[in-house]
Each structure stands twice: as structure tokens, then as C-alpha cells.
Amino acid sequence: MLHIITTYADLDGPRLMAVYAESNLENTDYFFPDMADKAMAVQKVEEGFLQFLRDEFFTGPGPGYYVLEEAGAWVSALRLSEVQPKVFYLEALETRPDRRRQGCGSRLLRKVTDHLRSQGPFRICDCVSKRNEASLRTHLASGFTIASDVGHDYLRNEDDPCDYSLEYRYEGEPAHG
User: Fold this and answer.
1) Selection from 29, 13, 102, 135 nearest residue 65 by Cα
2) Residues 6 or more apart from 7 whose CB is under 8 A from it?
């Protein structure tokens, strides 16, 4: 099941944090390098993540958190911001650590693009680290192409030579049902 969350009030923080568990643990070294209690550091990272979503993401351009639920668990998630009419910037595609290598990210991307196709032509832009082979494979298998060997962050208007710019385009007509 695809959940499309457009307001912070509709977000289930604990279920979302389970999707980002590995990244949140990794981010403790960046945000709280001197904190010895890793559990407390993870809690602080999660609080900061949720605060960012509340205060910045959901107040930004055309926000949408897309979450794939399977067997009652949130297994994969991503954020989309509408940076121009029908042009979306994708961030934070992630799959729960216990559900990796099971195609969850690809299923989520297909569900998101199918949902957007029902509304007519669109474009999704994304940046992926050149070192993140799993994410690159997932994007390419889901219909994305490498648009540039320099990543462009549409929200911050910054380029990063360590990333690729990826793109998904749909030029067709909306589905009629």
C-alpha cells in the first residue's frame, strides 16, 4: 500500500524512523560525535529529523512523503518536493534495514511514478552519490536515467561532483478511468 503524506500531522514518526534506522545511527557520528550513549544520540538525531520535517519540509514547496507499507510495516520511504509545476525533486529514498535487497525501493518508486502518471506529464529529479551503487541500480531499474555526472540539488541550488543527477520523465497523457 502506498501512503502519500502531505502534512506533518499525518506522519507516523516512529514508523518512519524505523525506515531510516540505519541512516539515523550513522548520522550520530556527524551530529553528535562526542556523545558516548549511542541510543541517546539516535534519539537526538530522530528528534532533529522530525523537527526538520515539521518546520521545513512540510512548509516547503508541494511536499509529499511517500511510504510503502507491506504486511503492516512501513518498509520504504522517500520525499518529493514540487520545485516547479510538475517538476519534483526526490530525496531520502530509503528502505528499512531488515527489508533491504527485497525490491522495496523499486516497488516504491514504481508506485510513486504510477501515481504521478495518473495526473499527466511530469519530471522527477534526484541526486545519488556515485558511491551508492544500490541506489543507482534501484533508480535505473525503475526508469530513471543519469542526466548529468554532477548532482544538482534543486532545493539548495547546489551542485555536487560526488553525485549523479538522475531524472525520470513522463511525457504522456493522464490515464482516464
Assistant:
1) 13
2) 58
Cα–Cα distance measured from residue 126 to residue 94, given in angstroms and rounded to the nearest whole number: 13
Please say whether the beta carbons of 170 and 117 come within 8 A. Answer: yes
Vertex 134 angle, CA 40 and 152, to 5°: 85
Helix axis angle, 21-31 to 38-55, nearest 10°: 100
Predicted model pTM: 0.90
What does the pLDDT look like over 84-122, one tens digit per residue?
Answer: 999 999 999 999 999 899 999 999 999 999 999 999 999
Report d(CA 40, CA 32) in Å as an integer.
Answer: 10
By three-state DSSP, how is residue 160 classified?
strand
Distance CA 88, CA 55 (A): 20
- Strands across the sheet containing 2-5: 2-5, 64-70, 73-84, 87-95, 122-129, 163-170, 145-148
Amino acid making up residue 45: V
Coil, strand or helix: which one is 87? strand
